[in-house]
Amino acid sequence: MANTREHTFIMVKHDGVQRGLIGEIIRRFENRGFKLVAIKSVQATRAQLEVHYEDHKGKNYFESLLGYGSSGPAIAMVWEGHGVITAGRSILGATDPIKAQPGTIRGDYATAIGRNVVHGSDSEKAAKREIDVWFKPEEILTWHRAGAQHLHDKY
Ligand code: IDP
Ligand code: MG
After folding, report:
1. How far is Cα 4 from Cα 81, in angstroms, rounded to an integer?
2. Among residues 45, 47, 120, 137, which one has the fewest Cβ atoms lying within 10 Å of its Cβ?
3. Enclosing H/E stretch for 128
4. Is the reported ipTM for this assembly greater than 0.90?
5. Which has the closest alpha carbon to 105: 93, 121, 123, 88?
6. Which atom of ligand 1 approaches the CA of 53 most closely?
7. Which listed ligand is nearest to 89 at the C-alpha?
C-alpha cells in the first residue's frame, strides 16, 4: 500500500511572508492534491533554527540563516500525501533561484539563495526532525478527503 501518510515540513520563510506569497505557496500544494495537516505562524528562535538547520552548522551562511530566519514571522506547515517529500522539492525548485526552473516557486519568485522564500524537507529523516522542531504531535491532524479515490490510484 502506498504511504499516503507521508509527511513533509514546508515553511514559508520570513522573506516569503514579506513578499505576500503565503497564499501562492499553499495554493501550489493544494492544487497538486496534497493535504494540509498542520499550519501555524511562528516567530522562529535561533535555538529552533539551529536544530532545523543542523546540517548547515559551520557553513559561512549559517549565521545569516539564523539571523534572518529569526527576524520576523514565518509560516510552518505539514503537508501529507504519497511522495510529498520528493514532489514538494520539485514544487519548490532548486535551492539557488538562479538555477530554479520557471514554474517552480523559487524559479517564479526568488532571486537570491539567501532569500529563496520557502523551505521543504529533503528526506524522510529530515522531515521527521523538522516537524518535531515546529509542531507538537497533537498539532498534526488526521482528516479524510471526500472523493480521495479520484485523486489517488493507491490508497
Ligand atoms: P534547501 O533549502 O533547498 O533544502 P539547503 O542546501 O538545505 O537548501 O540550504 C538551506 C538554506 O540555506 C537554503 O534554502 C538557503 O536559504 C541557504 N543557503 C544554502 N546554501 C547557501 C549559500 O551558499 N549561501 C547563502 N545561503 C545558502
Ligand atoms: Mg535543505
Report:
1. 5
2. 137
3. helix 124-134
4. yes
5. 93
6. 10
7. 1
For cell 546540517, what's the residue? Answer: 55
Kindly report, residue by residue over 15-34, the tens digit of the pLDDT.
Answer: 999 999 999 999 999 999 99
Domains of the chain by start residue, with CATH: 7-143 (3.30.70.141)
Task: Choose among 59, 64, 39: nearest CA to 49.
Answer: 64
Amino acid at 83: G
Which residues have CB under 6 Å of ligand 1? 56, 61, 65, 95, 113-114, 116, 119, 122
As a three-state string, the secondary structure of 39-102 is EEEECCCHHHHHHHCHHHCCCCCHHHHHHHHCCCCEEEEEEECCCHHHHHHHHHCCCCCCCCCE
101 within 8 A of 94, measured Cβ to Cβ: yes
- Cell digits of residue 10: 514546508
Task: Answer whether 135's CB lies under 8 Å from 38's CB.
Answer: yes
69, β-bridge pairs: none
